[in-house]
Amino acid sequence: MYYYGTTAVNDKGHLEIGGVDTIELVKEFGTPVYVYDVALIRQRARSFREAFVNNEVKAQVSFASKAFSTVAMVQLAEEEGLSLDVVSGGELFTAAAADFPMERVHFHGNNKSREELEMALEYKIGYIVVDNFYELDMLEEICAEKKQQMDVVLRITPGIEAHTHDYILTGQEDSKFGFGLQNGQTEEALRKVLQSSWLVAAGIHCHIGSQIFETTGFIVAVQKIFEKMNEWKTNFSFEPAILNLGGGFGIRYTSEDDPKAAADYVVEIIAEVKKQAELYALSVPEIGIEPGRSLVGDAGITLYKIGSRKEVPNVRKYLAVDGGMTDNIRPALYQAKYEAVLANKPLEKPTEVVSIAGKCCESGDMLIWDLPLPETDEQDILAVFCTGAYGYSMANNYNRIPRPPVVFVENGKAELVVKRETYEDLVRLDLSLNEKIKAKHL
Ligand SMILES: *Cc1c(COP(=O)(O)O)cnc(C)c1O
């Protein structure tokens, strides 16, 4: 078993996290349940921030809230001095509901609606990451109507795609996101912003991928951007105050993954930014990063109750749990891999290999293929590791399965931060065709 953060095995032989026995958590909150190791989230946030402080560069570390957007998580991000990325009116509203300082909120997205942009202006957020010309024109119009200025960071597509173990230079910048850096779109957008009386050109943004283990992609992106920054200084007397390099730092899901320590990515990126600034005699901009997965991913575990078992002779043993693609769609969506143990006996020797199935009516609803486990029965609790990012935030109600609760654990204490959905919640927005039945049930 790999020990993430505060995970340990206690003297009862149970898995514990944040100093709390997972079996006690199941008794109190039921299953399935998402559990977050708050100390590990704090540790990650601090190591990212300290890397900038130690290297004496101005920076904003933003939590990409799409990875796990809830009021409590946004409040934790604020406690740790992080900024916040949102990609929708809903995430923006969550930030407001958490009373997050709006000047540290950044708004992303390739198709923000007029209403969403107006909302961002009303909240007076820090800056809007403008993605395309349609948005640029609409934002200019709204700002003029409201007679309100707004800081704008241009999302550019540098023609780099980074994946776990490598990166690809894509000449044609084929992405639904951002202004092309090489095809003149970025200059055109920049010219528009510089000419506007309402939009303020604050900086440049790029995001090259997700679950990245190598820094090369980031380094090449920095080089390409600085080359252009040098031209912009000459042509427009413009130097971006902010250079935001996005998120995507990889984490360990299984023994196949071997990421660097979170802060090590940052140290290498800072070094390259400083090097390029010196090379072109440009000032070192404020550096932005936007980790999502690497802040919360390995801090989350999901606890499930073991249910039915099906053996296909000589082929496979299926073991079903009381959740699945409704609380973790990543295996079905991306063939994502996870590790798991029995929370009530994590150190017991495996005696068989099973495949963990969800309970949805989909053959693709499998959580883990070929997991070595000891003998199981219905008393057993399965703990799946590393479900903290894109688990709850992608949870859904397929098959009308209520979404699990979220519990924060820290220093031996557990705190419910999202309640379990109820069946009543599931029909709350439904309208009945029959008034009498409505009165009875809804
Ligand atoms: C998804 C995303 C992130 C966060 O990515 P992670 O892989 O979770 O770190 C950051 N910035 C932008 C623009 C994104 O789209």
Automatic annotation (TrEMBL):
Domain Orn/DAP/Arg decarboxylase 2 N-terminal positions: 40-296
Enzyme class, UniProt record, top EC level: lyase
Keywords for the protein's UniProt record, in alphabetical order: Amino-acid biosynthesis, Decarboxylase, Lyase, Lysine biosynthesis, Pyridoxal phosphate
One annotated GO molecular function: diaminopimelate decarboxylase activity
Post-translational modification N6-(pyridoxal phosphate)lysine, affected residues: K66
CDD domains: PLPDE_III_DapDC
InterPro entries in the cross-refs: Ala_racemase/Decarboxylase_C, DAP_deCOOHase_LysA, De-COase2_C, De-COase2_CS, De-COase2_N, De-COase2_pyr-phos_BS, Orn/DAP/Arg_de-COase, PLP-binding_barrel
Domain Orn/DAP/Arg decarboxylase 2 C-terminal, first and last residues per copy: 34-388
Recorded superkingdom: Bacteria
Entries under Pfam families matching the protein: Orn_Arg_deC_N, Orn_DAP_Arg_deC
Pathway: Amino-acid biosynthesis; L-lysine biosynthesis via DAP pathway; L-lysine from DL-2,6-diaminopimelate: step 1/1
Function in brief: Specifically catalyzes the decarboxylation of meso-diaminopimelate (meso-DAP) to L-lysine.
Oligomer and partners: Homodimer.
Matching NCBIfam families: lysA
Protein name listed in UniProt: Diaminopimelate decarboxylase
Protein species of origin: Niallia endozanthoxylica
Record gene name: lysA
